[in-house]
């Protein structure tokens, strides 16, 4: 029933948290508790908000824990700030209001008792900042000290766009598609259903953002329905599991041979995969080794399909060992197929006595859904663990890998373009119009995300994939008025962001019109076999390095950013 289903869902959540804590502790990523001793809440909060050291008066380097965080994750702090802005802004506004109420009560108490406690000096020099508490003022100062609010707001918008696409396009509309699939194939023979499931599964797998879970669950509901008379229930489930495994392996083969190998000559493909990144270089070392290891299989199963399979294609690895290493995915497929199977069994009509044919099917479906979530999370955690451990254990092998020079040049051009974009969109030099355009875009995105998150059941009609009619699958009726309101906020936010980006692109192009050259400097240490294998180093123009050189054999000059 609903009670045990809710309990099992809670158990799944607690299991995920427990696994996360276990992995976190195993990888020695925890910090000593004594580093927190003597640190007040205000100090800890302020050092987090100022973790990049932008406020020189209170640098986070005074505390060991924040020094470690800054050294390891400093480049990603704006990403975290953007996530905080998009998720916690309403709560932070409520926090400011509580601080205001707190300070007002202090003023009233000071006025009644004629006391000079609690910032009563504010009566002498009026400032709006004195209407919030000292701790809050310190946190507001740290917020204002951020280097580039525009960058944080843009990242917040990208977080919101990703959430909305995953919440609406992937989650909700995939359910609509699979409901239509189940409704369409309910009266078809097993052979036709197999072909339809195979084609739809291959199509969804070749979309980078679509997970495999909904495909397996839908197959678990459709295949037994079509094959129960010819194969029996148990035979239909086994047949469905093997079909899902074949779909998965065929999708990986197409991603590797067609996309990876077929497009490996294109710099854009290799850049999109990130062949020069430390993560992909580590994966490259692990998946290229002969034989089958736990680390190799964990990466092939737990890492996202697209980067992993396409990387194997770019490296032109043998297909058969890669597919063999991917076969443990069956331990994730089995519980997902059983989730769909028991959901189908629960949807069967009552017998002649009015009793449910399988009264515990809903409970079993929930149990296998929990097992599916745990298996999926465990595979991802195992992949992350082995990538981290192998990056340290095989550091020398990773460093010896050659750098893709064409991708390196493209990344360097992109870096210079991004630097110009950052310079052109500095918050202090932005106009009032562009600032408020970005702010309103963030507000609209926050409204959209909050509506979709907290009132999701009122935004979209509930679809039971096992019992749907053609009218229920109608997209226009599937989205409720509140859902259209949320999507309207999303469109407004994206439109305002587009306006801002058009302005930013124009300002960036103005900077890029200036003469700019990229030079490749040969590394003498590498040529003498005294260093790493990176023969070329990038050097930007300076007084010591003029824009032109008379010895082209030593340095290769590339044109301005406006040319190829």
Weakly predicted, low-confidence segments: 28-38, 56-62, 118-126, 530-535, 537-564
Number of domains: 4
Task: Please describe the biggest sheet, giving its number of strands, its sense, and whether it closes into a barrel.
Answer: 3 strands, antiparallel
How large is the count of helical segments? Answer: 23
Q: Would you report the number of β strands? A: 3
Shape: globular
Task: Classify the helix fraction into a percent range.
Answer: 55-70%
Q: What is the helix/strand order?
A: HHHHHHHHHHHHHHHHHHHHHHEHEE
Q: Give the distance, in angstroms, between the N- and C-terminal Cα atoms.
A: 64 Å
Strands of the widest sheet, in order across it, are 2-1-3
> On the 0-100 scale, what is the average pLDDT?
75
Q: What structural class is derived from the secondary structure elements?
A: mainly alpha
Q: Please tell me how large the radius of gyration is.
A: 29 Å
* Proportion of strand residues: under 5%
